Amino acid sequence: MGGFAKGFISIFGHQPLIMVKGGAYILLLHLQGETRVRVGRLGEFTFPPGWYAYVGSARKGLKARASRHLTREKHARWHIDYLTPHATEIRVVLVPSREPPECFLSKHVLETGKIVVKGFGASDCPCPSHLAYLGESSIRRTHSAGTWCNSPRR
Ligand SMILES: [Zn+2]
């Protein structure tokens, strides 16, 4: 386990987590400085500093999948696995659901952010990307709106 400041946030409280094992999640991660990362076969990219939102899903074991993203030592299996080891802070928003609204959520995070890597996390769906760059200020704005984030210490 690395030294992430981390936290789970369930937007529907704890009850649905017990009843529904799968769902979608939004990973909020912060890069302290400009970071050059090789993202598997997609190639090498320069990620500007700031907050990123990544949307993923797990049919079963949503919490286990989300926990996996919070560990540094792991075999890179998904695109996001190349990026998380560089993060200084990671937050996870769990969205328990029988039909994970993964692409619906990524459409919305892309409306507030920018695409850095085309096709990131979206190999088997029509989305342009499942990773959105939010910059430094979006998280604070989203937090003050009280929607899907608790307070990062920045
Ligand atoms: Zn998608």
Write the layout of secondary structure elements.
Elements: E1 5-10, H1 15-19, E2 23-31, E3 35-39, E4 43-47, E5 50-58, H2 62-69, H3 80-83, E6 89-96, H4 102-112, E7 131-135, H5 138-144
Parallel strand pairs: 1-6
Antiparallel strand pairs: 2-5, 2-6, 3-4, 5-7
The structure holds zinc ion.
3D architecture notes:
This protein is α+β, with helices and mostly antiparallel strands and 154 residues long. The chain has one domain. The protein contains 5 helices and 7 strands; from the N terminus they run βαββββααβαβα. The chain has helices at 15-19, 62-69, 80-83, 102-112, 138-144, and strands at 5-10, 23-31, 35-39, 43-47, 50-58, 89-96, 131-135. A 5-stranded mixed sheet has the order 1-6-2-5-7. The chain is globular. Residues 1-6, 12-17 and 143-154 have low confidence and may be disordered. Bound molecules: zinc ion (ZN). Zinc ion is lined by residues 102-103, 106, 122, 125, 127, 130. Zinc ion binds next to helix 4.
